[in-house]
Amino acid sequence: MTILKFPSFSPSTKENCPSDGTSSPKTHTVPGGNGHAFEVKKGTSFRIIDLHGRQIVDMMAWVLPYPSSLEHLSMAYTRYHLNGTAPPAVGDTLVTNKSEPIFKLTHDDCHTHDMTFMACNPAFYAEKGVPDHRSCAENIAEAMRPWGMSSYLQAASVDPFNIFQNTPDMTLKDLGCSRAGDFVEFEVLKDAVVGVSSCPYDVDDFGGGKATDIAVVTGLKP
C-alpha cells in the first residue's frame, strides 16, 4: 500500500499561502472538517487531493483584489456555459459572475462533482439538531479572514463547486465515488483567492460518516 505524505497544515494567512508562480510547488494539508484559503496566479495551476477517499470538498473563489473586486466563481454562470448541471469535463472552464473564465479543469480522476448544492451553514445544522456543528460556509469564512471576510454569510452567498460530491439531479447519495489519492487540477486564468472546505457533513453516513484530510498543492506549472 502506498502511503501519501504531505506537510502539516498551518492556518490560512496571506504570508503562508501565496502562489507567486516563482517558487517550487507548495502543499498544504487541510484537516478533515476544516477550511483553507490561498492565492493563485494566472498562468499557474493548483491541485486538490482527496487523501483518504469519499471526501467532498467545497470550493469557492474570488477574483483579486478581494474584497474590492465583486467578481467571483459562479456555478449559475458555469452551468449556463456548460449547458446543464453535468460536471465539467477535462478542458472545460469554470466561469465567474462576469461570465469570464477563471479556472480550466486540466485533470480529473473522479469525474463526479456537483454544481447545484449550497454550502452547508450553521442554520442547516441547527435544523438537523446539531447547532454547534462545523460548516463549509464557516470554514471558508474563517480561512478568508486575512483577506477581509468577516461573516460566514459572505461565503454562504456564493454557491460552491462541490468537488467529489455524488449528487446527480439534486439527490443526496451517501456513497462517495472518489478514492484515496484522487485529485482534480485547475489552470488559473485569473488572479484569485480560493477558499476550500473539507466538508464536515457527517449526517446519515454521508461521505463515509467522517470528515477526512485533503491536500492542496499550489504553484504548479500548467
Per DSSP, the total helix count is 4
- The average pLDDT is 88
- The geometry reads as globular
Low-confidence regions: 1-13, 15-22
The helix content is 10-25%
Strand content: 25-35%
Strand order of the largest sheet: 1-11-3-9-6-5
| Total strands | 11
**Class by SSE composition:** alpha+beta
Q: Describe the biggest sheet?
A: 6 strands, antiparallel
Round the Cα radius of gyration to an integer and report it.
16 Å
Describe the protein in words.
With 222 residues, this protein is an alpha+beta fold. It is built from four helices and eleven strands; from the N terminus they run ββββαβββαααββββ. The chain has helices spanning 75-82, 122-127, 136-143, 152-156; strands at residues 26-30, 35-40, 45-50, 57-63, 93-95, 101-108, 113-114, 161-163, 183-188, 192-198, 214-220. The protein has a six-stranded antiparallel β-sheet with strand order 1-11-3-9-6-5. The chain starts with 25 loop residues before the first strand and ends with a strand.
Features:
alpha+beta, 12% helix, 27% strand, 5-stranded antiparallel sheet, 4 helices, 222 residues, 6-stranded antiparallel sheet, disordered N terminus
Write a compact overview of the structure shown.
This protein has about 220 residues and is α+β, with helices and mostly antiparallel strands. The chain has helices at about 75-80, 120-125, 135-145, 150-155, and strands spanning about 25-30, 35-40, 45-50, 55-65, 95, 100-110, 115, 160-165, 185-190, 190-200, 215-220.
